[in-house]
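Before we proceed, please read the two lines closing this message. Let me know whether the structure tokens fit the sequence:

…
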Amino acid sequence: MRVEKVARIFRSFAEADKADFQYHHSLTPEQRLDILGELIRRAHPDKTGQRIEKVCRIIKLQED
């Protein structure tokens, strides 16, 4: 994923926060997950390729 660097100037923090909200709101769920995956890869480059282990347990319920 390539990150495009963009600089914008705002008149207030509120205006900047509103622009951030609008940007993130415009993304599809897939795009949001792609960004999350990229941030995780950057934070933990040595763990790239590892997967989350899925565990399922079947528990027998007691009947009264």
